[in-house]
Amino acid sequence: EPEVTQTPSHQVTQMGQEVILRCVPISNHLYFYWYRQILGQKVEFLVSFYNNEISEKSEIFDDQFSVERPDGSNFTLKIRSTKLEDSAMYFCASNKDRGTDTQYFGPGTRLTVL
Amino acid sequence: AQSVTQLDSQVPVFEEAPVELRCNYSSSVSVYLFWYVQYPNQGLQLLLKYLSGSTLVESINGFEAEFNKSQTSFHLRKPSVHISDTAEYFCAVRNSGNTPLVFGKGTRLSVIA
Fold this sequence. Notes:
The structure holds 2 protein chains of 2 kinds.
Chain A: E1 5-7, E2 10-13, E3 19-24, E4 31-37, E5 43-50, E6 53-57, E7 65-68, E8 75-79, E9 88-95, E10 104-105, E11 109-113
Parallel strand pairs in A: 2-11
Antiparallel strand pairs in A: 1-3, 3-8, 4-5, 4-9, 5-6, 7-8, 9-10, 9-11
Chain B: E1 3-5, E2 10-14, E3 19-21, E4 24-26, E5 31-38, E6 44-50, E7 56-58, E8 64-68, E9 73-78, E10 87-95, E11 102-103, E12 107-112
Parallel strand pairs in B: 2-12
Antiparallel strand pairs in B: 1-4, 3-9, 5-6, 5-10, 7-8, 8-9, 10-11, 10-12
């Protein structure tokens, strides 16, 4: 069964450094998302992406964040200058169609900012 | 704005006992409802979903949830739990279209032998 994959599984970085989290959505999916889960808290929406542009973003997704689909398979989340409070599990998700389609999640990348 | 409330942060239960994980939502429009499960050190997996039609939905591993519009609830139940059901369970809601999911805080189910 096709699945969403994410790399790396763990990323440790120093405060102020840039990080890029990578995701490979399911191949025929058209809608892509990033969510994050700070330890002990709920899963929160960051951004959705369709047709090579952001379709919706939350208040969390400020100018330090950007997303890109650099080729036909990868979907990346870049944090330009990491802060301690960016430490979280970041989940990528994708779905095929609008409406009733289910969002399928990747296994997540645990980001630790020191 | 939509929101999801999972009142129980932790639910310990003995093996083979029944369990109910509660979920209430608020929304001004029609919604789709989901339960996701997160096993230790893994990502989110869809457990079951309600989109329309029958208000009782079932998963392949014995869980079921019932959509109750009047009570704005979507509680998850299983008549007899196994050790392998130990995980974090998240209730989520979204409206039609391609809107983002809104998650509850999660309920940690611990099954005790």
